[in-house]
Specification:
Two copies of one chain form a homodimer. Chain A has 235 residues and is α/β, with parallel strands linked by helices. Chain A has two domains: 2-93, Arc Repressor Mutant, subunit A (Orthogonal Bundle), CATH 1.10.10.10; 99-211, Rossmann fold. Chain A has eight helices and ten strands. The structure holds nicotinamide-adenine-dinucleotide (2 copies). Chain B binds a DNA duplex (30 and 30 nucleotides) through helix 1, helix 3 and strand 2.
Chain lengths: 235, 235
DNA sequence: ACGATTTTGTTCTCGCGTTCACAAACTCTT
DNA sequence: AAGAGTTTGTGAACGCGAGAACAAAATCGT
């Protein structure tokens, strides 16, 4: 009776794809990479999964399982060679090549991103800054100068740009996104607080600072037992 | 034989806590809030779970289940009253009160955050900007001027600050974090690419743009079939 | 008044991710 | 060379979250 509906039929036997790395693992690989770099900088040549796990802030079993998806790079009884593992993870992520990035919307946030040196050091090369505000076009930020959005197609094509960063107001985000996609960009990082729709072949990730603060506020409210709900009082 | 080890004993019967909202749900509440605000701005007074789900970019069953953790705010056969639901979610998150925020590290990113109007409109009030660089102290950014880190304790105490944002270089992040905690801040948003350790009663969230780009790069590499691994060639 | 229609709230099932636990594989000591 | 010690890689159990499905509850039409 509980199961009156149609049955689901046979279980879809999913052959473990040759290279099917779980999404949760992918998100941790950069963390491991950072931990390995830190160890390498301290001239540590070998590290156990426990050492690495501490550096990365995760459980050691999880770390070992994550690494096992990439291959068998450790030595039982010894641990992992720091530089070797670092290279393997970098290769897996795709950091053995440089990636060209365009930033669209060079306002407060766009300026900060354009000036950030931490991208280049991780293999991301900001090749163009775009803005629709004609007053801003031509202005220079760091090594680059701001180009018009109309040059997008040419820039993407000639610069092999595959990653686009959206730092425009929310109202413009979808339009900018569409233009990026049309120009051939297939990965997008969105800072605007807006829901963007993209074709299947395009990957999109969002960073929303307001949401982060709201999540903190939720827990903060629980901690302080502020169940009265009304307090505040900044006139 | 497979199960030779010690058994785990009785199952921990977890009474569904009166207010045990799953973390995944908490993370989506701000998204629903934004969707509701957008609908309200368009003078929509009532919305079904399907309408809302589309606006928020989630599955409608998931949305209904999420909302059911908060209470019974819908009407069967009708849907949800937009403004009423919006208030209930805001109250649940804790946005019926203002939250004071301090930003530490007023460099590229800190400036952008300080100038961002989107925080205030969501109930977050930046009450102080702190930097260790004496040359910067006194400089004004928007309405505020930059204070010395030494004033942290006084600022936190007198301003009821509960949320701290770290936008310093990674090397300074842990020290700054410790000082925030010592001053009484119990929620921290960290932009520095560093692993921070905090006491149990402190919540910490991180935003790491490099990690986001690396995740995009991983998928991008798969898409372009760039399995050769060696290419790049920026001299 | 009552059946048809709509839509919520909730139950159930499935799959993913986390963690424990341990055999296999390696090094080190004697 | 053999045993003791160490650490990886992985099988298995478990818990959480996603989504399908449906009964309950409301409105609408006649
Ligand atoms: N500044 C922050 O710290 C911060 C924090 C969180 C979220 N955000 C979000 O990031 C985005 C940018 O924020 P900001 O503070 O830099 O805003 P901003 O107003 O300072 O900058 C926006 C820039 O985008 C440009 N622009 C507008 N429409 C455009 C279009 N169609 N094509 C190209 N460029 C266009 C504008 O000319 C401007 O230079 C916003 O969506 C904001 O909500 C910013
Ligand atoms: N700028 C970006 O777009 C961006 C992107 C991703 C990550 N980040 C990260 O955000 C952080 C800040 O980046 P940024 O570009 O603004 O750097 P920045 O160098 O421009 O600014 C850092 C600021 O922190 C201050 N500072 C240093 N030590 C301090 C201390 N102990 N106490 C208080 N203040 C201190 C400095 O005086 C400076 O004003 C870095 O960790 C960076 O990796 C920045």
């Amino acid at each position: 009776m509980t199961n009156a509906g149609g049955r689901k039929g046979g279980r879809a036997r999913v052959e473990r794809a040759e290279r099917g790395i779980p999404e949760a693992t992918v998100a941790r690989l950069p963390v491991y990479l950072r931990a390995l770099t830190a160890l390498s900088d301290r001239d540590v040549t070998t590290a156990s999964s426990e050492d690495l796990a501490v550096s990365a802030g995760v459980n050691s079993a999880k770390l070992r399982k994550d690494l096992s998806y990439l291959g068998t790079y450790g030595t039982r009884g010894v641990g992992y060679d720091v530089d070797y593992l670092r290279y393997q993870i970098a290769r897996e992520i795709g950091l053995t090549q440089d990636w060209s990035v365009v930033i669209v919307g060079i306002g407060n946030l766009g300026h900060a991103l354009a000036n950030y040196s931490g991208f280049a050091s991780r293999g991301f090369r900001v090749t163009a800054l775009l803005d629709s505000d004609e007053a801003r076009v031509g202005e220079s930020v760091g090594d680059l100068h701001i180009s018009s959005l109309d040059d997008l197609d040419e820039i993407v094509r000639s610069g092999s740009v595959s990653i686009g960063v959206i730092a425009t107001p929310a109202a413009a985000a979808q339009i900018v996104c569409d233009r990026l996609v049309a120009a051939g960009v297939s990965s997008i990082l969105n800072f605007a607080p807006a829901l963007l729709s993209v074709p299947d072949h395009v990957d999109i990730r969002k960073v929303d600072l307001s949401i982060e603060l709201q999540i903190l506020a939720f827990h903060e409210q629980r901690k302080t037992g502020a169940l009265t709900g009304i307090k505040a009082g900044t006139g």
